[in-house]
């Protein structure tokens, strides 16, 4: 198990000796294990306070006639303008403190995780050293430790034991992830994503997978990292993806989880394709509600789903005339039968088995062929068979999700926005368009470029966002397959009861172009 006794020089030397890895497990060497050494607990560095760009009285402009302005804000007196500045400065400082202490708490949680891992190691070491006499075995020693800690913290022994075990497993399987967490590069949400994506990997594969994921974390949120890490993990798997999908689909089920206040979760476990199609149809139906409907969107979705399931009809007829829509991307090599082709995916990142993907391709009303930059993999142009709104299709396919910092809402539910506003001379072309969800689209325009977020589009669709406090964040589009097909409407059941078996029947013969 790798621990903090490893010096940075040792890690650098070890990395320098690694050859470019093959994807096969047989070509991967596990990271070398350190010699027995005393676990070390690092001291977490204090999070740095962001420096707010505070306003001062010098920013107050006397417009005459008793009017004073601060930026875009106008006030009836100098005292009101000064009060606004004081409140703004206080808010900036408080927000700065929130960010700083959020970062500090994350680092302290990482340090606590490392302490728990060290406690597990030392518990095992104590039990080993005592094993020569009439001493307690490891299990008894562990029970003694957890019961002691639990009594002091007033927590259950199961909780304490579980957290210690989880920490030990993280430190053993993903030491570099724990290091990145301790350094403040990632937080607990990223850690969970990495662990979940690597569940099926072997001991030899994990270090390579872990390093690739950490290299691409950047400013991604956990939900954004989940899709990327899942793709990376799939490259390390030896099993046929269709075989994995078949086994997983056999585990579909429905159950209820009781909640407080007489509520419950109705859980439907099914394929990602069907789940996205169902949610997309519910979303379209909920959006068609009348203007005087006071229910919030989550409430509309719930009511619509229950009405459809229980009565076979829909709340206020919202589902009438609405077809299930799902966007599917697939490499051209998959359709043309090239061996080793990548799998098809839905817009939400769910994998689709080959037979189902080919069936969707055969029944698609239109296809969009994308051409990508050979270096970055980002879509740069498209041509369309039976074209409709081809430019929007390109932008949606290129961006995949809302392009605001940290947002992962699917592009098919978003608006296409001009980076430079049309009224300011912005052109309606790919390098001046991006996908924004309605919330962030409104946020961008509500305050204007002087007080709100500013955005500039760089080559290949990269967006450079500048926050109101001057922080700059870059959001890059995710690479896509060299040529993909987008299936936009799926009104029929992909698994009809009397239709072909998606697992056992031969794939459909389909020509790409």
Question: Radius of gyration in whole Å, from Cα?
Answer: 27 Å
State the strand order across the main sheet: 1-2-3
Find the structural class using helix and strand composition. alpha+beta
- Largest pleated sheet: 3 strands, antiparallel
Number of E-state strands: 15
Shape: globular
Low-pLDDT residue intervals, each spanning 5 or more residues: 1-52, 316-322, 383-388, 482-513
How helix-rich are the residues, as a percent range? 40-55%
Distance between the termini: 53 Å
Total count of helical runs of at least 4 residues: 16
Mean of residue pLDDT values: 73
Fraction of residues in β-strands? 5-15%
Outline:
With 513 residues, this protein is of the alpha+beta class.
Kindly describe this structure:
Among the domains are: 46-173, no CATH class; 274-324, no CATH class; 328-475, no CATH class. Helices cover 42% and strands 12% of the residues. It has 16 helices and 15 strands. α6 (188-197) packs parallel to α8, α7 (206-216) packs antiparallel against α8 and α10 (272-287) crosses α11 (297-311). The protein is globular. Residues 1-52, 316-322, 383-388 and 482-513 have low confidence and may be disordered. Residues 1-40, 489-513 are annotated as: Disordered. Residues 494-505 have a biased composition (Pro residues). InterPro entries: DUF222, HNH, HNH_nuc. It comes from Agrococcus casei LMG 22410.
Topology:
Layout: H1 8-16, E1 61-64, E2 67-70, E3 73-75, H2 78-130, H3 138-153, H4 157-173, H5 175-182, H6 188-197, H7 206-216, H8 222-235, H9 241-249, E4 253-258, E5 264-269, H10 272-287, H11 297-311, E6 328-329, H12 332-335, E7 344-346, E8 351-352, H13 354-363, E9 367-372, E10 379-385, H14 390-399, E11 415-418, E12 433-436, H15 438-446, H16 448-451, E13 454-457, E14 463-466, E15 472-475
Antiparallel strand pairs: 1-2, 2-3, 4-5, 6-7, 7-8, 9-10, 11-12, 13-14, 14-15
Helix pairs in contact: 2-3, 2-4, 2-5, 3-4, 4-5, 6-8, 7-8, 10-11
